[in-house]
Amino acid sequence: MKSIPFLIIIMIGFLQGISISFILFSPLLIFSYYFFIKKIIDEQSTKKIFYIGWCFGSGFFLGSMHWIVSPFLIYEKHFFFSPFVIIIFPFLMGIFFSINSILISEFRKKFDLKDRNSIFIKSFFISLFFFFTEFLRSYIFGGLPLNLTAHIWAFHSEFIQIAKFFGVFGLSFLTINWVVLVALNILLKKRKTAFFIFLFFPFFLLVADQFLKFEIVKDKNLMEIPVRVVQPNIPQIEKWNRLLFQENLEKLIGLTLINNKPDEKKIVIWPEVAVTSYFNEDQELNQYLRQKIPPNIILITGSLRREFTKKSYNIFNSFYILKKNGQIVYDKKKLVPFGEFIPLKKILTFAKLTPGVGEFNIGEKPNHIEFKFKEEKIIIEPSICYEAIFQTFGTNNSNLFINITNDAWFGKTTGPRQHLAAQIFRSVEKGVPLIRSSNSGISVITDLNGKIIKRIDLNKKGYIEKNITFLSNETFFEKNQNKSILFLLFFLILIFYLIDIVISFKRNQVN
Question: Under DSSP, is residue 69 helix (H, G, I), strand (E, B) or coil?
Answer without folding.
Answer: helix
